[in-house]
Amino acid sequence: MRIVKEAEIRKSEILDTAEKLFVRKGYENTSTTDILGEIGIARGTLYYHFKSKEDILIAMIDRQVGQMAAKAKAVAENREIPALQRLILAVSAMKADNGLGKELTEQMHKPHNALMHQKAQAALLSEVNPILTGILKEAVDEGVCSTDYPDAVIDMIMVYTGHTFDDLSEIAEDEREKKIDGFIYNTERLLCAAEGSLRELILPLFAR
Amino acid sequence: MRIVKEAEIRKSEILDTAEKLFVRKGYENTSTTDILGEIGIARGTLYYHFKSKEDILIAMIDRQVGQMAAKAKAVAENREIPALQRLILAVSAMKADNGLGKELTEQMHKPHNALMHQKAQAALLSEVNPILTGILKEAVDEGVCSTDYPDAVIDMIMVYTGHTFDDLSEIAEDEREKKIDGFIYNTERLLCAAEGSLRELILPLFAR
DNA sequence: GACCCTCGACCGACAACCTGTCGGTAACAG
DNA sequence: CTGTTACCGACAGGTTGTCGGTCGAGGGTC
Predict the structure, then answer these.
(1) Do B101 and B42 fall within a single domain?
(2) Does A76 lie in the same domain as A31?
């Protein structure tokens, strides 16, 4: 009844299980007891490895975001691809990574998981923003678009999409399309790109 | 020991107290018992008037947002003022309303109150966005700026400011200024206004 | 090999909360 | 006198985090 494992292994076992449950039932609705039951360990064990339930959440998010950032970075470094296109690729690489992504981001936006969403958003911002900003700067250098504040542009776009498009479910199809059109239009404006010039590039990101 | 009041009076008494405590300690860290103690009523009384703790939060936010929307609306209808200027006035009217606003918005951004922030943001969006969009449309008609998607522009700006500038504390002064500069620049881009043309108008909103 | 000891991983009872329910009570209106 | 509205407080059920104690693998020592 007492199975001893190396700390790192136990830790990721706990994270795996927590992730699964958080995705399925949401953060608030998952009790530490649920996690214990699923793994078959005792209360004390969990609190030996993590100092609180929130600590688990943070670790889980860091893991996810770290993976996403890594994928984005890999794409970012491939200088063969035109910068603007690479920017889009980096974003879609992150979406793809997210194996459980679909359900996770869906959960995220349920009001219950506000904390989870907020923490994920913050982590994503601080990890990924610099990477995307780097690519955008290259795009500006290439002369395909222009802005004096690439960092602020990425910020604005990330915050907006994180808030608006994660819960693509729920809303009506035509509503969604209108939002996407507006978003593309605004993005073109922010980058001083000709109207319609980014449409084909951006649209695939919203395919489903 | 048993003081009977009319339902509406009790309700707003509860909301007042809850608001005070939520602002001071945050939503998660305020227990219903705290509220009871502060007012001097029994558990059952609170749950006679509200069906849950979250219900109290929602009612409190609706009250706040309702007041803010009303102020904004009042300003919006004053056609004497140029639309673009009116837009700014409407925004600053909302900030002013918020008597406890400073502390409230500060609390909002502490990770603990993610739920509160999220709900407030959503309510604000749906109430205030149409009002501001209306003003922006007038501005476009006046010819002082242009956009095909006024609604999306307001959306983007509200989401971004709600996320980024509420927690103006915490970050360094120069960091803050850079963010503001970027924001103004981006706003000008979104509205197709000449660079620098909105600066004097927008800047006062960030005064402190 | 036999002994001991340390220390990391683990256990589970328990304290200290928390929210929401429910049967019952007081007062007022009609 | 009766129905309704506002109120009470004990209590059920659930939550997180703590803490003293256990177990055993591995390292020294003889």
Answers:
(1) no
(2) no
Residue environment code for A77-91, b if the CB has 16+ CB neighbours within 10 A, otherwise e: eeeeeebbebbbbbb
Residues B113 and B175 in one domain: yes
Residues B72 and B47 in one domain: no
Q: Computed from CA positions of residues A166, A171, A176, A182, in that sequence, does the dihedral angle turn out positive or negative? A: negative
Domain count, chain B: 2
Q: Which residue of B has its CA nearest to A193?
A: B189
- Least CA distance to B163: which residue of chain A? A159
Q: Which residues of A touch B120 (CB under 8 A)?
A: none
Residue type, B168: L
Does A79 share its domain with A100? yes
Q: Which domain, by its residues, includes B116?
A: 60-206
User: In this structure, is the CB of residue A10 within 7 Å of any atom belonging to strand C?
Assistant: yes
Q: Which residues of A are less than 8 Å from B160 in CB distance? A: 155-156, 159-160
Same domain, B94 and B3: no
Give distance CA A152 / C1' C1 (Å).
Answer: 71
Q: Looking at chain A, list the stretches that DSSP marks H as alpha helix, in order from N- to C-terminal side.
A: 7-25, 32-39, 43-49, 53-76, 83-97, 101-108, 114-142, 150-164, 173-191, 199-202
Residues A158 and A115 in one domain: yes
CATH number for A134: 1.10.357.10
A5 touches strand D (CB under 7 A): no
Amino acid at A12: S
Instruction: State whether the beta carbon of B118 lies below 7 angstroms from any atom of strand C.
Output: no
Per-residue pLDDT of chain A (208 residues; tens, 9 = 90+): 677 677 789 999 999 999 999 999 999 999 999 999 999 999 999 999 999 999 999 999 999 999 999 999 999 999 999 999 999 999 999 886 665 566 667 777 777 789 999 999 999 999 999 999 999 999 999 999 999 999 999 999 999 999 987 666 678 889 999 999 999 999 999 999 999 999 999 999 988 7
**Any atom of strand C under 7 A from CB of A14?**
no
